[in-house]
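look at this fold:
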Amino acid sequence: MSLLLFAAVIAAVVAVFAYRQRPKPGAIWLALLLAGVAWWAAVYAVELPITPLPVRRPFMKLQWLGSLSIPVFWLLFSLEYTGRDRWVNPVSVAGLFVVPTVVAGLVFTFEHHTLLYRSVELVQNGDLYAVEHVFGPAFYVGIGYSYLLTLVGSALFVSLLAGRSPTHRKQSLALLVAIVAPWLGNLVYIFDVSLLADVDPTPMAFLVTGVASFVALEQLDLFEAVPVPDRIARDIVIDGMYDPVVVVDNRDRIVDMNTAATTIVGFSAQTALGRNANETVPGFPEGTADGETVTVDSPEGVRHFDVAISAIEDAHGRPLGQVVTMRDVTKRQHDEQRLNVLNRVLRHNLRNEMQVVAGCAEELQSRLDDEADVALATTIAESANEVSELGDTAREIEDLLETPESTPAIGLRDTIDRLLDDAETENPGAVFTLQWTPDHDIRCRRPIEPVLRHLLEAATSSNRPPNPHVRLFVAADTEDYVSITVADDGPPISDAERAVLETGAETPLDHASGLDLWLVLWGTRAMGGSLDFESHSDTGNAVTVHVPVVESVRSNEQQASAE
């Protein structure tokens, strides 16, 4: 009896722990299940010492409240905890309690009929008195229904034992131990093979239920690592995907696909199963990991897809099939087409027309005598040349971004020396100084040259002081990164222009003054680097480019000195 009371206390305490985890999936149902366990064990502990059958009969009936409700709570907990909560609603809960309610009505009136027990007799077993039953048909209906619910709920956790998550496997094992222990005890009692004669070992096995449930709750984080995300992942990630996904077996037969694929293959998921993927899925089997672009005439119009095919293998590396993923790139292709057209107009048509305008303006300058007219012609020529230069910069950006990473790197010191020589030639009044701190040469990717050239041009542009002073500082941040700072004494870069570069988007009110700083930004990013801006009204600007080092080149003397 003390063992039964101990089991009841353990179950009640763990029920409180489970109840505190609400509203996490399954917490309420597990708490009710454990409350039912505590009820059954406690009532049976009170019943066992009672000898008069009429006094004992009410406790026999009250036990059934626990035995009839526990399987229902177990199934509801299993459904909700494993992500099948759409089956847990007021209608389904009421439906599950129909059979227990009918059986409960027969339980509380069993002394007036033989549907539940054909006979009930009190027998002595040592210091205890047990009830010897001859079961009737209603008993087997109730117990069979309870076993069915227990089996279905347990099957849901058995499926998790084969899952990928070791945490969910441990949790499932603990919960299965919690439910299987009393279930086996009940089987022993029903088939009359108990070593305790007519004493029901089921409530005693609830001690295992309480301990196993406590382990699952407190040691295995039962409600902190719920498998619900794994269950709903397919609905959200696969079925909810805009891109079609098709799964084929080793015979290239369709075995599964998401909703988005139905508009591509032309069949519903049920109709497509078993069909030959070579004849049904566009781009199969030509698709590769790099992507094969295919065009599909779908009900939504012409669409373009990058097709990627991934192999499915078992734990031993044996091929099981393939997953065909079709990434919709229709918008990307349309955007690329529009950008190509706009880029071509900017780089060719607009640039050529601006050169004509500039040429005509220069011709007008030579023919006009009035100073005001000459000034207007000069302004036209300068503006036309600026627009033409925008086209040149746009072409340079395109070339810069298309530079393959395999292109040979260039020496940073030679590049800077050459750029400074050109800048001094183009700006006779400017002063250029270089502070090189590394003790060796450094090789960087080729975009570093146009990036530094445009920084130097910005530092000596027409809106700078008459004799600007431009300073370059080169320092090795680490063995893998170098920083180049271009500082000038001109007017600072405006906060609005810097904000545009930082956000990466221009608006009608916030925009950069040209493409030069965009070239610097995109070129630096293309090298895997970053930019820092510092602007002060009294000291000017300092733009620092941090870029990876492709190679450090030391002379023989430097290598010998280092050794």
